[in-house]
Design goal:
Layout lengths: L1 H10 L10 H5 L8 E3 L2 E3 L20 E2 L2 H4 L3 E3 L6 E3 L4 E3 L10 E2 L2 H16 L2 E2 L24 H4 L14 E9 L20 E10 L4 H15 L7 E6 L11 H9 L7 E4 L1 H4 E3 L4 E12 L17 E14 L5 E14 H8 L12 H10 L17 H20 L8 H20 L10 H9 L4 H5 L1 H33 L10 H8 L9 H10 L6 H11 L16 H9 L13 E4 L2 E4 L3 E10 L2 E3 L1 E2 L4 E6 L16 E4 L3 E11 L2 E11 L1 E2 L3 E6 L1 H24 L5 E7 L4 E6 L6 H16 L4 E7 H5 L15 E7 L11 E4 L14 E7 L6 E7 L3 H22 L1 H12 L5 H17 L6 H40 L6 E4 L5 H12 L6 E6 L3 E9 L3 H15 L5 E5 L2 E9 L9 H23 L1
């Protein structure tokens, strides 16, 4: 009846009495109207064209037939060409005949439509995606949600003068990675059709502006009016309440959905775990409403909501932040309520592209096609579980997902390495290569070609991919080479494991201990568990899943958490307490109050401030006594708090009643906390505090901080113009500087960088610091912000060089709020002491400046002097001089001992800090010199032994044998020498020689003396309980020898003692022989 009357009212046709049948109700007399769908003529009954009718239309790739728009036929009148939209029942301007409306929704169009909708229709500001690397203090995991970059707003820590502080409504598409932490999808990727490591979150936010009603209305309008999803495919959930926490059901949201026309049967209540969102253990939280899409299409999916079924999936979550969770878990109402919504692009693409699988969308299909071209494996078929024979489709999904994740990560300046997020990236890339090579049989080096496809797919949305295209490709190629080498060495280690354990246990089963032994490198190379698993299966080994999971748990490195100390800090409730008490933030601008003249710096003395807050381990207090660790908050401070990598100032704060030693300074939301110990007396709230910093400590930090800026400029000039700072730790006596570049850092380049910095110091360039609005500073030439730093609305720009002269290009221009020298000449000497080189990992340079370079220089000079001494000693002339001395009867062993001691001293010096160029020289030349020394020692000892034996033969002419004590380097040398010299005498010649780890006793003589010589050697073997008899004949000469291992000797003895025992044994043997003759 209502439909008839509405139609009649729109077209100006008189209505009749209510019909008595449904058919009569729907038969409206509109002259000349006809309705067409897919070429078939139907009755103009609007209720016949239901959304379910679209099922009869054949689907096309990447095309969705909007069920409501599909039946949105154009009605053409026969008397004038006026048309009517069957959906809204209004005349429109188009007059052509239109069969049906189809919309092709590419992922790019879905993404753009989302942000455009909120921008153009609802005044949202489009905010660029933040990096997947969390900002400073943002946690140790990847960015895993769109709201991460807005946490300062939710936590009310945002600078009100910053750009973010003025956000009211925002929208964006955010890069997200869920690997590690609470949300870790790495182990699930590939096994199903909807999990990913990298995904995109389409989001909209209201920061204290609109709330539930508007958020729900916008979401429904976008889904149904813009994307064209039918309501009968959607389910809407709301929070059902929690009696334990005293939370009532969110009936407000339920009623809003009903008021928007959603049938009650499609609005479902769920518990805390599904429909209540927390930022963490404390902080903003609130109920959420989720929108789920039913792929079944027949209305039977209601029981699958929130059941993890691919047939009914969550596509959008609307979070209403209306509470604050306190430390005692209680909830209080927020003064400013926020809306945080997130829609997964991959899932929405699956819905709009008419598939239940995220991997059947245009986000992945081009990658699958590229893989298929590189391998002879069949094309991707979308199979899972047992149907996926050989795991081929699983491998397709893993490779496609992981190459997207790694490309995005590298574009955001993350490099694969051995720690933190870099280690996670390397693990993901390794799994990608493993699946590509072992399962998909992709040629070595071909995975990097997939980067091109990823850039084509995502480059427009994320320009950093296009900017870093070649960098991503090169790093992927280098990492693939590294992985190939790792697999090869792992196979060798696994083969060793097989050989060594086959006889000890059931060689077809691997225990957790076996896995960890392989993983820790017991059999050679450390074998990653994922590679080990594949090798085990290939070679017929079995292992329990529980055992593998246990090994994976043991494999995982400890989470990188902040060092656990008893350091005092201000938590959120303490900061709120200070604010509520009206205590202002600390004015610490006086840390920049220093002057310089001719290299001499003057700092404030006994700078006055008032103590506004005192705290100990229990919290805020009014007074503190001696020998207690505590924290002080003053209204004005001249202390530099730790920031930008620069260490905090140290010094003293003194009051009328006490003295406080400042050991650390930290800033918490504008409050500067001076941490240390009360050395004497006591401190009280309200007292005047006289502040003095440690000048030497500050000057050391200033010199080193300015040097880091020169160092970065040198890196960009010598190694890579695109080198980026990745962090620094600046102390008074040294500093470390981290930077990222895919370019390998060579040893000679380190020397060039050092020269560049030293030249800048010698030029005595001015150093200037000036404050600018952040937006202006970010547009300056050469300004590259740190990727993990959060900058305030106004920032300092530090420039090094002549900024006043027109046309002069500054040597360095960077954002920096640290303290610096005012002239590079004040830095003093500069030495790079160490540099970690790696193709992929973040590189790190250690350096020293100023007065701390003196000890470094002296150590380096000492090392060079020792190196020169050794070189002279082992040179050809040095050897000849020693040989000549030996011929003259001079013992050369002392010289050999002295050179060996010099080598050991030089090795020990490598543990000290010295210039890296000197260290590199020592490390480069010392191995060859050591080898030369060993050869020289062998030659000298042999010559000395020959001289000793010759002299002993002459001295022992009247003896039955000749016994000599002289050292040689090797056993073979002694035996060879003995055989050569014995042939000139007619009696046994015996040599006792110290071979360092053993003692050689050898005797050679005429064969008619064989019995006596053999008997003597056997007695020595028996005496010392070790050694084996060795016999050798050469012409008329017979030789017997033994090698007495020092560790195996039952009687501890040195070579001289063994020589005495040998003489005694030989005397006894020949005495017995003489007795028999007599």
């Amino acid at each position: 009846m209502r439909v008839k009357r509405d139609l009649a009212r729109i077209h100006g046709i008189p209505t009749q009495d209510p019909p008595t049948s449904r058919r009569a109700l729907l038969t409206i007399e509109l002259p000349g109207l006809s309705y067409l769908v897919a070429g078939n003529q139907f009755s103009p009954d609007p209720l016949l064209f239901l959304p379910s009718f679209s099922k009869s239309l054949p689907p096309k790739d990447n095309t969705i037939y909007n069920p409501e728009e599909t039946v949105m036929m154009w009605a053409q009148s026969s008397n004038g060409g006026r048309t009517i939209c069957h959906r809204c029942l209004k005349y429109i301007k188009s007059t052509h005949r239109y069969i049906s409306h189809q919309e092709t929704w590419t992922s790019a169009k879905i993404r753009k439509t989302f942000v455009d909708y909120f921008k153009e229709n609802h005044d949202h500001q489009i905010i660029p995606s933040s990096s997947i690397i969390p900002v400073k203090d943002g946690g140790t995991y990847f960015t895993n949600a769109g709201m991460n970059q807005f946490k300062p707003i939710f936590l009310e820590t945002v600078d009100p003068n910053s750009k973010m502080g003025n956000y009211k409504r925002a929208t964006n598409h955010q890069k997200c990675i869920r690997v590690g932490g609470k949300h870790n999808d790495l182990e699930t990727v590939g096994k199903d059709l909807y999990h990913h490591t990298f995904f995109e979150m389409l989001g909209s936010w209201s920061f204290g502006d609109y709330f539930k009603v508007e958020a729900c209305a916008m979401a429904l309008e976008l889904l149904t009016e813009v994307y064209g999803l039918p309501v009968n495919r959607l389910y809407f959930t709301y929070f059902s309440g929690d009696t334990r926490l005293g939370l009532q059901p969110d009936l407000e949201t339920k009623n809003i959905w009903q008021s928007l026309g959603i049938p009650q049967k499609r609005i479902l209540p769920f518990y805390m775990e599904d429909n209540f969102w927390d930022m963490g253990k404390t902080g903003p939280c609130g109920p959420c409403t989720e929108i789920h899409y039913d792929h079944t299409g027949d209305g039977t999916g209601v029981h699958l909501v929130n059941r993890g079924s691919p047939q009914v999936v969550e596509i959008w979550n609307l979070v209403f932040m209306q509470y604050n969770r306190c430390e005692d878990s209680s909830l209080t109402q927020l003064q400013r309520q926020h809306v945080d919504t997130g829609m997964g692009l991959e899932r929405m693409a699956a819905v709009l592209q008419n598939t239940e699988s995220n991997y059947n969308t245009d986000l992945f299909s081009p990658i699958f096609e590229a893989i298929s071209k590189e391998t002879k494996i069949r094309p991707y078929q979308g199979l899972v579980g047992e149907q996926d024979q050989g795991g081929i489709d699983t491998a397709y999904r893993v490779v496609a997902d992981h190459i997207r994740m790694s490309s995005i990560s590298i574009a955001d300046s993350l490099l694969p390495n051995r720690s933190g997020l870099g280690l996670t990236l390397r693990i993901v890339m390794s799994q990608c290569f493993q699946q590509a090579h072992q399962v998909l049989r992709m040629p070595q080096g071909s995975v990097s070609g997939l980067v091109d496809v990823v850039v084509d797919s995502l480059g427009e949305a994320y320009p950093e991919l296009q900017k870093n295209h070649s960098k991503i490709k090169n790093i992927t190629k280098d990492t693939e080479k590294w992985f190939t080498s790792l697999v090869s060495s792992s196979e060798t280690a696994f083969s060793s494991f097989v050989k060594k354990t086959a006889s000890k246990r059931d060689h077809t089963h691997m225990s957790v201990e076996d896995m960890m032994d392989l993983h820790k490198g017991k059999y050679g190379t450390k074998v990653p568990l994922t590679i080990m698993q594949e090798m085990a299966v290939r070679q017929g080994y079995s292992f329990e899943d529980a055992a593998f999971k246990e090994a994976r748990i043991q494999e995982q490195p400890l989470e990188q958490t902040a060092e656990q100390t008893d350091k005092l800090k201000l938590n959120r409730s303490m900061i709120e307490s200070l604010q509520q008490r009206g205590i202002p933030c600390t004015d610490d601008s006086f840390k920049y109050s220093y002057t310089s003249c001719g290299g001499t710096y003057e700092f404030l003395e006994n700078f006055k401030g008032s103590i506004l807050g005192l705290m100990d381990s229990t919290g805020f207090v009014d007074e503190i006594g001696a020998d207690v660790q505590c924290g002080i908050i003053v209204d004005r401070s001249m202390f530099y708090s730790e920031a930008g990598g620069q260490a905090a100032d140290i010094g003293y704060i003194k009051t009328e009643h006490g003295s406080f030693r400042v050991e650390d300074v930290q800033t918490f939301d504008g409050y500067v906390l001076h941490i240390g110990h009360v050395e004497s007396g006591e401190l009280r709230i309200g007292e005047t505090a006289l502040q003095t910093i440690d000048k030497e400590h500050r000057m050391g930090c200033m010199r080193n901080h300015t040097a880091t800026h020169l160092l970065l400029e040198g890196l960009r000039k010598v190694i890579d113009v695109n080198a980026e700072q990745a962090g620094s730790r600046i102390y008074a006596d040294h500093f470390s500087f981290d930077f990222t570049t895919p370019v390998k850092m060579e040893a000679d380049q380190v020397s060039q960088i050092e020269d560049f910095v030293q030249e800048s110091i010698c030029r005595k360039e001015p150093v200037a610091r000036k404050m600018y609005p952040r937006d202006i500073a970010m547009e300056m030439e050469n300004i590259i912000p740190l990727r993990d730093e959060v900058y305030p609305s106004e920032v300092f720009v530090l420039s090094i060089g002549n900024a006043e002269s027109a046309g002069d290009k500054l040597g360095s221009t960077e954002l920096c709020g640290g303290t610096h020298v005012t002239n590079t000449g004040d830095i003093g000497e500069f030495y790079i002491t160490s540099a970690v080189r790696s193709k992929q990992a973040t590189k790190r340079i250690y350096a020293v400046t100023g007065q701390h370079t003196q000890q470094v220089y002296e150590t380096g000079k000492g090392a060079q002097d020792l190196l020169q001494k050794i070189k002279s000693g082992v040179s050809g002339k040095g050897v000849q001089d020693l040989l000549q001395k030996i011929k003259s009867g001079v013992d050369a062993k002392d010289k050999i001992v002295d050179l060996n001691e010099s080598v050991q001293e030089l090795k020990n010096m490598l543990d000290l800090v010295m210039p890296k160029v000197v260290r590199d020289q020592v490390l480069s030349e010392l191995p060859l010199l050591t080898l030369s020394l060993a050869r020289m020692e062998s030659e000298i000892l042999l010559a000395n032994a020959q001289q000793v034996i010759t002299e002993e033969i002459e001295a022992q002419q009247n003896k039955s044998f000749v016994l000599c004590r002289s050292d040689v380097r090797k056993e073979k040398q002694g035996i060879k020498l003995l055989l050569r010299l014995q042939k000139d005498i007619d009696k046994p010649l015996c040599l006792v020689s110290d071979l360092q780890s053993s003692i050689l006793v050898a005797v050679a003589g005429p064969k008619n003396c064989s019995m006596e010589m053999e008997d003597a050697i056997n007695q020595l073997i028996k005496t010392y309980g070790c050694g084996t008899l060795f016999a050798q004949s050469k012409g008329d000469t017979q030789l017997y020898s033994t090698d007495l291992k020092k560790r195996q000797m039952t009687i501890e003895a040195h070579a001289d003692k063994v020589c005495e025992v040998t003489r005694t044994v030989l005397d006894a043997v020949y005495a017995a022989v003489q007795q028999e003759i007599n």
